[in-house]
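Hey, quick one: can you model this chain's 3D structure?
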Amino acid sequence: MIVKTTPTAFQKFAHDTAFSTQKYLSITALCVAACLCAPAAVHAKDITGKLEIAPAAQLALHEWPDQTTLPDAEPGLQGDQALQSLTEEASKQAQTKYLAAKWGRSPKTVREYVNLAWEEAGKRDGLDPELLIAIMQKESSLSAKVQSRQGAQGLMQVIRRWHRDKLDPSESLFDPKVNVRVAADILEEYLELADGSLHQALAKYSGNARGYANTILKESRKLARVADQAAAVVALTQS
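Sure thing. Here's the predicted structure for all 239 residues.
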């Protein structure tokens, strides 16, 4: 079911764009661990200097697109909303860098796909952006113009004739925005049919390909760690 209400700042942050207790505790733990290694009066500018910080935070900095520049919050936001904006941007930047390096793609193009995944996941219950990105990798290696012999098209390899009800005749599945939207609709539908079982939904999406669900979930967790680590660094600098 598509959620039509606008999510709050912290609701949008977690995997399903809800700032979950689990993620909050994870980030808090990372921040506390890092702070134990740093002076109490540490400032954001010290983070990328010679200061020794916790290994998890060091890894997050390693994933950072530009270790000398932290993202800016959206104009007009304050407090928790500003922090959410910063951490979300940090997560997207880190995922973009990871994916661009992994697949040899343009960071600009990869960032477009990352944004689409976050946007579509934010409209739905039970779908994380990391899940959508993991499927993009498995299905097309982040290539928007590919087509299989069976007729599956685009980033997430959607077969048009099976899902005509989900797109207009004028829409192209080679358009990343259309492709990710339709694929997210399909996954949402399959989740409902499977009573919320992600494994079963992924199995149906793949045509029961062996090991597909485990591969997707493993990569999804890796993407989530990349995002969590980058977000933890931002949270540390704002404390």
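One thing worth noting: The helical segments are 21-36, 55-63, 79-103, 107-121, 129-140, 176-193, 198-205, 212-238.
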